[in-house]
What we know:
Shape of chain A: globular
Oligomer: heterodimer
Largest sheet of chain A: 6 strands, mixed
Mean pLDDT of chain B: 93
Strand content of chain A: over 45%
Largest sheet of chain B: 7 strands, mixed
Number of helices of chain A: 0
Structural class of chain A: mainly beta
Low-confidence stretches of chain B: none
Distance between the termini of chain B: 34 Å
Helix content of chain B: under 10%
Radius of gyration of chain B: 13 Å
Largest interface: A-B, 22 and 24 residues
Order of helices and strands of chain B: EEEEEEEEEEE
Number of helices of chain B: 0
Shape of chain B: globular
Low-confidence stretches of chain A: none
Distance between the termini of chain A: 39 Å
Order of helices and strands of chain A: EEEEEEEEEEE
Amino acid sequence: GESVGLHLPTLSVQEGDNSIINCAYSNSASDYFIWYKQESGKGPQFIIDIRSNMDKRQGQRVTVLLNKTVKHLSLQIAATQPGDSAVYFCAENRDYKLSFGAGTTVTVRA
Amino acid sequence: DTAVSQTPKYLVTQMGNDKSIKCEQNLGHDTMYWYKQDSKKFLKIMFSYNNKELIINETVPNRFSPKSPDKAHLNLHINSLELGDSAVYFCASSQGTEGKGFFGQGTRLTVV
Lengths: 110, 112
């Protein structure tokens, strides 16, 4: 089926290290992707987005990479901090709606 | 100021009851959404309204009825609540239908 999925449900990272969260999508027609962060007890919070005419986009400590050839999306977090502990979702926009992947729970070890 | 606010934050009710969740956004957005997040954290869109018109209705039981009195409000009414309706419901808004949404804090609905 056509869906957005994540490779790993959990990721444990040492504080200060870089984190890489992966996401695969199967709809080649998707042209807009978003990463969200959801902390416990809160709603998803926008992190960064990217359009299909780009391969890379950088924000503050975060970088999103898009590989359309293999339909792969990744979020890189530099110098991971305890406050980065959360569930991360990738989402693709198609047909006027966001379709979310299952989420990756990131735990930062002190 | 809270951008997207939902009330109530927690809702515990018995099976068969009817309940409503309210949502308001002060971002000036023209599109609002309801999402359901299950116990495994999976988020799925339920409804979307653009300028008070329903544009997305995702195979949701007709016990769920959204209402948008104006662009800043999107309420969700649920009739005859069932155990399987227990979940966290999120309201979101965006400018346009592209889906880059700002989410509320969620309403945790527990049906007992």
